[in-house]
Specification:
The protein has 451 residues and is α+β, with helices and mostly antiparallel strands. The chain contains eleven helices and 18 strands.
Length: 451
């Protein structure tokens, strides 16, 4: 071996040939690292939060509707043969009569009841005076001053007595908390499935669902205060219609706008409460902020569907709001799931995209520092089924406005661009090899400061 020293002067060091040689070597390494199987479009879609979060929300809101809808009665109805007609009931003002149908006594106030065609096409009554004993009718009712008051009457072909004026209160009370709880459970469960971290998924889903339901219950206070504005607007409509029963189809355009805006704001409160509850524990401030903002935006957008559907599609007081509640709840679920995913995506600064292995196509947003990578369920980026990865293999640190990856003394080491590193600053597009798994580091493009 020669002891002759090799000398490189400054001109040789900065010669273009050196840069070209380094570029060729770098390109060769990149081709080796990048030679991975493409992720199928179906797999990429399933792992995309903009798809699986709204889908999970739809499933959960549909479950709420299927469970509660059969128990909800907006306008309770009673029907059957009229057994008694009292034209001078006790303690009633002039002109008020009562109809007895089975065990129900219904007060009919002149000018305060609507007459509709029968469900089988029978002609509508023109006035209450046409109703006789033995006629079979159906009456839509509301409670008023401890009495059951008719708001609509129509003939019916049913000969049996059916229905009840008692309206169960609890389905509407639990609607918000149950929707919030199941939405939170569905969103966290879906995110857990895509990461295959079953232990963390079950724990976060159950805890997030409980807290979301709790906070949605507390959200009744601000939501109720907002809806009082809607109630004041409706009270003005009642005065304008001189006590006649008024539905959302009868109100003025301005009142309708106020009611829709109030419902949207009330649902925004519930959506924000859902986002707060689902990420209150074991989440970063950024995750919490994103879920609250996404929940509020989703609730506001979804809440806008309720009143328009009632106003433009409901043709009779005997037709309940099942369809509008279904569309409204689905809209709320889709909107919350979509906005939670969208806000997270727009707010992210950097993320790791898995290129190989069981999680190929999955992205992990770098919310915290350090972000631990390993094959232990406690890792922030859980890369399972890779025997070459240690329980805590590597970590990603945010240093100012940049990110650095650090090998945690793993057996197989950590490589960036085909070169093993101990700690290295990352740039967008870097390919990281951890065990037998390849992940891409991607970073949102930063705006250049204006001079």
């Amino acid at each position: 071996m020669s002891d002759e020293k090799i000398r490189i002067d400054r001109a040789e060091l900065f010669a273009p040939e050196v840069d070209q040689a380094l570029a060729r070597e770098h390109a060769g390494r990149e081709r080796v690292v990048a030679d991975t199987l493409p992720v199928s479009p179906v797999r990429r879609l399933l792992l995309n939060s903009l798809f699986h979060l709204p889908l999970a929300a739809v499933v959960m809101t549909l479950a709420v509707w299927l469970f509660l809808e059969p128990k909800i009665e907006e306008v309770p109805t009673v029907g059957g043969p009229v057994s008694i007609i009292d034209t001078d009931p006790f303690a009633a003002r002039d002109g008020v009569i009562t109809l007895t149908i089975g065990s129900e006594t219904v007060y009919v106030v002149p000018g305060g009841v609507r007459f509709e065609r029968g469900s089988d096409g029978q002609p509508a009554f023109t006035s209450v005076d046409e109703i006789e004993r033995g006629d079979t009718i159906e009456v839509a009712t509301q409670a008023e001053g401890g009495q059951v008051v008719a708001v609509a009457i129509r003939p019916t072909s049913r000969q049996d007595t059916f229905g009840s004026s008692d309206r169960p209160w609890w389905p509407l009370v639990v609607l918000f908390p149950m929707t919030a709880a199941l939405l939170a459970f569905g969103l966290l469960f879906a995110e857990g499935i895509t990461t295959r971290n079953w232990l963390r998924m079950i724990e976060r889903s159950l805890l997030g669902a409980f807290l979301a339901g709790l906070f949605a219950t507390l959200a009744y206070l601000p939501a109720g205060m907002i809806m009082q504005v809607s109630n004041l607007a409706m009270r003005g409509e009642l005065e304008r219609h001189a006590g006649e029963f008024v539905t959302i189809r009868d109100v003025s355009g301005w009142t309708f706008f106020v009611m829709a805006a109030c419902r949207s704001a009330a649902w925004a409160c519930v959506g924000a409460a859902t986002g707060l509850g689902m990420n209150l524990v074991r989440a970063t401030k950024a995750q919490l902020r994103n879920s609250v903002l996404g929940g509020a935006l989703g609730g506001a957008v979804g809440g806008l569907f309720f009143d328009p559907i009632d106003r433009f599609s409901k043709s009779s007081l005997f037709v309940d709001g099942a369809a509008s509640r279904l569309v409204g709840l689905l809209a709320v679920g889709i909107a919350i799931g979509l906005f939670v995913a969208l806000v997270e995506r727009l707010a992210r600064d950097a993320w790791l995209r898995v290129r190989t292995g069981p999680l190929a196509g999955k992205s992990f947003i770098l919310y915290k520092t350090p972000t631990l990578i390993g094959n232990a369920p406690s890792s922030d980026v859980y890369l399972y089924k890779d025997a070459d990865i240690d329980p805590t293999h590597a970590s990603v640190h945010r240093v100012g406005t940049t990110y650095e990856i650090e090998d945690m003394g793993s057996r197989m080491g950590t490589s960036v661009g085909g070169t093993k590193v101990r700690r290295k600053r990352l740039v967008s597009g870097d390919q990281i090899t951890i065990g037998a798994t390849i992940v891409d580091f991607e970073e949102r493009q930063k705006r250049e400061p204006q001079g």
